[in-house]
Amino acid sequence: MSELDRVLELISGETEPEFIAEKLNTSVCHATNLCLKLVEKGKLRLKFKVICPGCREVCAEFENIIDIPDEVECRCGYKFMPMRENIKMVFVKV
Ligand SMILES: [Zn+2]
Description:
CATH architecture: Orthogonal Bundle
Mean pLDDT: 96
CATH class: Mainly Alpha
Oligomer: single chain
Bound molecules: zinc ion
Number of strands: 5
């Protein structure tokens, strides 16, 4: 079984690259690259979740990183500029 097939098997619901890395005993960077290859092949979809620094909840979700606005207002009332550390990538089976 190829590494990509193993990744695909591990994905259920919304899966973070950290989970794949742990299961494959590899780096998060390598796991992310494997997932991105599967996105290219049309097997997975990538979603970006914006995490509010105020309440730690997901306050918005985007399909494309370019769609993330410069400023986000969370339901808790916190307004912020989404930075790298506020954005979480998740992968979903197509
Ligand atoms: Zn919030």
